[in-house]
């Protein structure tokens, strides 16, 4: 419940103006709650209408994406791009291809992206896009024709100095390649209009690994500063088995942690001996198969139907890396009862507001998504830098910069939390640290 009258008025108006957008309102509510103390101390923000302007994107386009399947039948999906804020840099944010995509989900992701990108300290504005297209079960030819049709509209709205999309759920290297090919064909320009590109055409080393690795760098920093501890020797549960989850497991293991479970949207695997990542990569990256196959191939591992059951496994660290609202109050209670010490979010808004509050109320260290998973977009920013100077940095150079950025994000969030009188509350800290830079830029740039 918001106490600050200005924030409450803007939130109530946002509810009125955005009916049937629960995920977007959830994200706005969470950010506003964290900003109460900060906004109350800066009355000039109300005078300049900063909050009203932040909840209303600069623009949002929706468009028809018509394409032909392998049987020659015409299929139609809906495409989206929301350009939320360019206050501190060109619009930047991923594309999601998943049947659940709608205006509410794209807007929640775009809104969050504004503050996350600010936290990276790179000059990046906030955006997001995608489609309700499901790449699962489609042939490469079908995915290519869909991507070409999608880009045939999207290319009018993006550009290397205007808006630079990347991947997200359902959009990996294959999709980015097809999208980039079509952009080039339409614009006759080879530039850094997308990130997450293949290494032979402008991609950055370590971009594939970046979100998962960054999550573990952030987790390590949380443990070191707040508990004088480390990832080494910890039992870890990581949900999901896509890009973020796989590279979170890789870095967790490299830091000496033991990951005992992973999941997909149908169920989870439990391997008490520790996940064999080579088997997961073969199933998910090569065969594009289901996580249940792991239990058929690795003795001692079990498969359980239903992805939420993963939170019933006792662990020291829980890293949700699948999707929004995958960890609710029930899951949070199970984790706390089983002694979890830290939760850090690899996915965007994976914990419900009730779950996040429950963790904090029970002394569990909590790393919110916009800080903990910012390594992906930060490395996309590094890909843009390499494209601009037409040079490629080595894996070690990019990884070292990613590490520094994640440590710096933790410091900014921890210092802002301290300044707001809630030391260790990284939800408040990340929101305040991300917000103040964007708000100050808006104050300087005049009313628009
Ligand atoms: P992927 O498509 O590579 O993997 C997504 C994973 O989540 C899959 O295991 C998928 O299972 C599972 N999943 C998807 N939808 C659901 C659902 N409704 N319920 C349960 N599980 C589900 O995506 P990413 O790994 O790239 O993204 C994962 C999360 O991380 C998302 O929240 C994304 O926004 C966020 N993120 C990603 C970044 C990136 O660089 N890729 C950067 C920052 C955040 P299944 O195969 O069964 O669908």
Could you please describe the fold and organization of this structure?
- The protein has 448 residues and is of the alpha/beta class.
- The protein is built from 17 helices and twelve strands.
- A seven-stranded mixed β-sheet has the order 9-8-7-6-10-11-12, with helices on both faces. The chain has a five-stranded mixed β-sheet with strand order 1-2-4-3-5, with helices on both faces.
- It is globular, with a radius of gyration of 21 Å.
- The mean pLDDT is 97.
- NADPH dihydro-nicotinamide-adenine-dinucleotide phosphate binds at residues 167-170, 211, 240-245, 264-266, 307, 321-323, 326, 346-348, 373, 376.
Task: Summarize the SSE layout with pairings.
Blueprint lengths: L4 H13 L4 H19 L3 H4 L2 H6 L3 E10 L5 E12 L5 E7 L5 H17 L6 E6 L8 H15 L8 E4 L6 H15 L19 H21 L7 E4 L4 H12 L3 E6 L3 E4 L6 H10 L6 H5 L4 E4 L11 E3 L9 H9 L4 E3 L8 H9 L3 E3 L1 H4 L2 H15 L5 H25 L6 H20 L3
Helix pairs in contact: 1-2, 2-5, 2-17, 5-17, 6-7, 8-9, 8-15, 8-16, 12-13, 15-16, 16-17
Bound molecules: NADPH dihydro-nicotinamide-adenine-dinucleotide phosphate.
């Amino acid at each position: 419940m918001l106490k600050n009258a200005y924030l409450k008025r803007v939130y109530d108006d946002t509810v009125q103006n955005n009916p049937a957008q629960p995920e977007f309102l959830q994200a706005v509510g969470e950010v506003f709650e964290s900003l109460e103390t900060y906004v109350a101390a800066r009355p000039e923000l109300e005078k300049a209408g900063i909050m009203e302007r932040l909840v209303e994107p600069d623009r949002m386009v929706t468009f028809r994406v018509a394409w032909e399947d392998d049987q020659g039948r015409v299929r139609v999906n809906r495409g989206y791009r929301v350009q939320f804020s360019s206050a501190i840099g060109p619009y930047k944010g991923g594309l999601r291809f998943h049947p659940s995509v709608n205006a509410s989900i794209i807007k929640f992701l775009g809104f969050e992206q504004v503050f996350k990108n600010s936290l990276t300290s790179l000059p990046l504005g906030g955006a997001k896009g995608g489609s309700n297209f499901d790449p699962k079960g489609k042939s490469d030819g079908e995915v290519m024709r869909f991507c070409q049709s999608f880009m045939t509209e999207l290319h009018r709205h993006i550009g290397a100095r205007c808006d630079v999309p990347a991947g997200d759920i359902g959009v990996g290297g294959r999709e980015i390649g097809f999208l980039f090919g079509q952009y080039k064909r339409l614009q006759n320009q080879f530039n850094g209009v997308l990130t997450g590109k293949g290494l032979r055409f402008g991609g950055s080393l370590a971009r594939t690994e970046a979100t998962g690795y960054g999550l573990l760098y952030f987790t390590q920093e949380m443990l070191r500063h707040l508990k004088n501890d480390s990832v080494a020797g910890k039992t870890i549960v990581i949900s999901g088995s896509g890009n973020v989850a796989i590279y979170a497991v890789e870095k967790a293991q490299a830091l000496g942690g033991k990951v005992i479970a992973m999941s997909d949207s149908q169920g989870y695997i439990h391997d008490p001996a520790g996940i064999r990542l080579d088997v997961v990569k073969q199933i998910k990256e090569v065969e594009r198969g289901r996580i249940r196959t792991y239990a058929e191939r690795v003795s001692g591992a079990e498969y359980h139907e239903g992805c939420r059951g993963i939170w019933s496994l006792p662990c020291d660290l829980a890293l949700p890396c699948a999707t929004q609202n995958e960890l609710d109050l029930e899951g949070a209670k199970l984790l706390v009862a089983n002694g979890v010490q830290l939760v850090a979010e690899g996915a965007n808004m994976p914990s419900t507001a009730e779950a996040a509050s429950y963790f904090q109320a029970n002394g569990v260290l909590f790393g919110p998504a916009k800080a903990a998973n910012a390594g992906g977009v930060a490395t996309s920013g590094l890909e843009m830098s390499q494209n601009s100077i037409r040079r490629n940095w080595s894996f070690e150079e990019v990884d070292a910069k990613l590490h520094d950025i994640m440590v710096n994000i933790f410091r900014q969030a921890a210092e802002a939390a301290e300044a707001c009188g809630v030391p260790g509350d990284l939800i408040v800290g990340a929101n305040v640290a991300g917000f103040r830079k964007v708000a100050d830029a808006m104050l300087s740039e005049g009313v628009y």
